[in-house]
Design goal:
- This protein has about 110 residues and is mostly helical.
- The protein has one domain.
- The chain contains two helices and two strands.
- The chain has helices at about 10-65, 75-80, and strands at about 100, 110.
- Strands 1-2 form a two-stranded antiparallel ribbon.
- The N and C termini lie far apart (about 75 Å).
- Zinc ion binds near residues 93 and 96.
Amino acid sequence: MKHQNRGFTLIELSIVMAIIALLVAVVVPNWVAEVEISKKNICLANVRVLQGLLDLAQQDSQASHTPIDITNLSYDGIAGIVCPNYLAHMPACPAGGANYYTDNNGDVICSFHR
Ligand SMILES: [Zn+2]
C-alpha cells in the first residue's frame, strides 16, 4: 500500500480560516465591551471612595471647628483634602486619567463617565 503524504487542500484551509474568522468576529466585540464595563465599574468605585473620604474629611473638619468646603473642587483640590490623611494616593479614572472633580453640591464626578 502506497502512503500518500499530501497537505491540506485550499478548500480545507479556507474553511478553517473562515471558522477562525467567525469566532474572532464574535468574541472580540464582546471582549472590548467587557473591558469598557470594567473600566466604568472601577471608576464608579473610585468615585464612591473619594465621596466617602470627602464626607469624612468634612465631618472631621466640622468637629475640629475648621470646616472645609468640598464644593467645586478640582482633582488637585480633592487630592489636597484626602491624600495626606485619608488616602495614600489619588486614584485616576482608568479610561481618562486624572479627571475627578466635585460639583456645586460636593458630589464627586468623573468628567469622562459623568
Ligand atoms: Zn471615569
